[in-house]
Amino acid sequence: MRKLDSKVPPGPLAEKWVKYRSTMPLVAPNNKRRLDVIVVGTGLAGASAAATLGELGYNVSCFTFHDSPRRAHSIAAQGGINAAKNYRNDGDSVYRLFYDTIKGGDYRSREANVHRLAEASTDIIDQCVAQGVPFAREYGGELATRSFGGVQVSRTFYARGQTGQQLLLGAYSALSRQISLGSVTMYNRHEMLDLVVVDGKARGIIARNLLNGKIERYAAHAVVLGTGGYGNVYYLSTNAMGCNVSAAWRAHRRGAYFANPCYCQIHPTCIPVSGDYQSKLTLMSESLRNDGRVWVPKDMAMVEKLRKGEVKPENVAEEDRDYYLERIYPAFGNLVPRDVASRAAKYVCDEGRGVGPTGLSVYLDFSTNTMRYGRSVAISKGQPDASDAKVKEWGKEVVSAKYGNLFEMYEKITGENPYETPMRIYPAIHYTMGGLWVDYNLETTIPGLFALGECNFSDHGANRLGASALMQGLADGYFVIPYTIGTFLANEIRTPKISPEQAAFDQAEKEVKERIEKLLSIQGNRSVESFHRELGVDIMWEYCGMARNADGLKTAQQKVRKLRDEFWKNVFVPGAANEYNPELEKALRVADFFELAEVMIMDALDRKESCGGHFRDEYATPEGEAQRNDKEYAYVAAWEFKGPGQAELHKEELTFENVELKTRSYK
Ligand SMILES: Cc1cc2nc3c(=O)[nH]c(=O)nc-3n(C[C@H](O)[C@H](O)[C@H](O)COP(=O)(O)OP(=O)(O)OC[C@H]3O[C@@H](n4cnc5c(N)ncnc54)[C@H](O)[C@@H]3O)c2cc1C
């Protein structure tokens, strides 16, 4: 087993980053101009990195498979971004954000990285405000905040329900400026299909021009991946349909270790599955749990009445409702972290108290807080005796100002008006905490290959707290990589321009072409989509989803292998290689999902404990909560590729010097 060096600098936690940053090797401006950097991805992580590296003077080439950098999946982020600004004077601090994140991650993340993230959080807000990101503001002009799960302060900055979009527009404008200055060359509609490693260092990529199918080579002194998460391995998820693991997976195949693949986040508030035709699930932002109360009926008689349509949910009396999160977790109530809220929803549905046609949903009800807001407006208008109808109307206006676009989206999809009747929600796959293993410099186990944002194994341990992915992506791109890439590039200033005309590029290109030819030559009977659906819904969600156990995971392993074999014999990919061919794009991505799925299962089998999003039925407390095993499993599991379905485990032991490992309690 290889010893993984996390390269965490010495010194007190709060001083590590400041001191390290001030003492690390620098690359002089004249040398930066001679160094080429490839950035793959234009989400918050990639766009912020490419813009900042361009601004610093590096010669950057930036790639996205989308038709515009602005289409990166970050655009979907709704609820907000955390920062320890303490504008509310409610007790927040960098330490508290650090502590909440470590605890929220169930003590499975690296202390030093998380502290650095909390430090950078405040700079991110300043940077984005300077770019013109229209964060919500209080009446007096100060930036507004709201609360997200797992915390007791209000530190989430937001732009209505479109925070990701607004932040991405900010990063995109910074990127566009560099494109217009010539320091960044942008390649839209180019998909990275392989990483090229020369003499042990990442030196380039092989990309397919998606418009004409041409296979192209790009060389650089270093490669940075900001290619997002792999939640789409489950087929149904809140991720955009195009999100995939291929860039990270291809890097993994070339030697980058893949860390904690079984840590997947299941978000408690998504619009429930409604039929077999669906290929996407829609998130209802966690911010809604600020004002929405989660409940199911107390007894089965009421469940039956609701199902038969004899009673409408809005007419169910208070005494017949079980606000189970408020009952079980009084300290955090509806704002418990996502893993806890998701499991609780699963339990009540498993008991049979789930609502809606499938019984797989719970209510998220805004009526109490609509009336509370309305009363407050009535008092401020000097009309404390206003009628209930008037109070409701005013309350609706407040709720609409906060969540209007989310309510509209819900109504468009379900046909139900959430101002009048409670929303129905159910957990769905949303985010992946696992990803490429990186050290403190965000460098993978391949020198010169860096990974940022959701595609690295991140600072979120076994469970990410809401509003912290945007924070991490932007911290990585704006504030970490611009420094840490220098630790590698400072030693490359004498390296001449990397030529793409060399053996490693020939070989990688040949392998890409062979893979494409193979997929096109099968001409079988099943669509790529049908394989993806079976892999994701019937195997991964069923056996490696909200709850896992050894028997189920072993069954899943067999099923994935069998299905993967069938895929390579019976998939039908129409069209040709040298043309626009979206089915071919999908086939290449699904082929990688098959290999990833096996390592996820291996990782879930290895981790004989429950922690965060990884819940093993065998390791639960008598109350049904996750039971960690810190003695044996306080490590990052970093898997080395040894062939499809084969991987070797390396462990990075996690040391906790600043927080005490406790059983996570939100009661
Ligand atoms: C519906 C939804 C709502 C969310 N809301 C929030 C929220 O409110 N707050 C929060 O903190 N987090 C939220 N998240 C999570 C957060 O949005 C993501 O974790 C984050 O935006 C990921 O950013 P990224 O830059 O790492 O990746 P992405 O934004 O996914 O970008 C990936 C980029 O890589 C490119 N790419 C990928 N593979 C290749 C390849 N092979 N070749 C070329 N290009 C490639 C893509 O084109 C894209 O440009 C939400 C997630 C979802 C799904």
TrEMBL record:
Broad class of enzyme this protein falls into: oxidoreductase
Residues of the FAD-dependent oxidoreductase 2 FAD-binding domain: 36-470
EC number: 1.3.5.1
Catalytic activity as recorded in UniProt: a quinone + succinate = fumarate + a quinol
A GO term from the CC aspect: plasma membrane
Cell membrane as UniProt keyword: yes
Gene3D superfamilies documented for this protein: FAD/NAD(P)-binding domain, Fumarate reductase/succinate dehydrogenase flavoprotein-like, C-terminal domain, Succinate dehydrogenase/fumarate reductase flavoprotein, catalytic domain
Biological process per Gene Ontology, one example term: anaerobic respiration
Keywords: Cell membrane, Electron transport, FAD, Flavoprotein, Membrane, Oxidoreductase, Transport
Active site: 338 (proton acceptor)
Keyword DNA-binding found: no
Membrane topology, from the record: Peripheral membrane protein
Cofactor dependency: FAD
Subcellular location: Cell membrane
GO MF entries: electron transfer activity; flavin adenine dinucleotide binding; succinate dehydrogenase (quinone) activity
Domain (Fumarate reductase/succinate dehydrogenase flavoprotein-like C-terminal) ranges: 538-666
Record-stated family: Belongs to the FAD-dependent oxidoreductase 2 family. FRD/SDH subfamily.
Name of the protein: succinate dehydrogenase
Native source species: Saprospira grandis (strain Lewin)
Biological classification of the source: Bacteria, Pseudomonadati, Bacteroidota, Saprospiria, Saprospirales
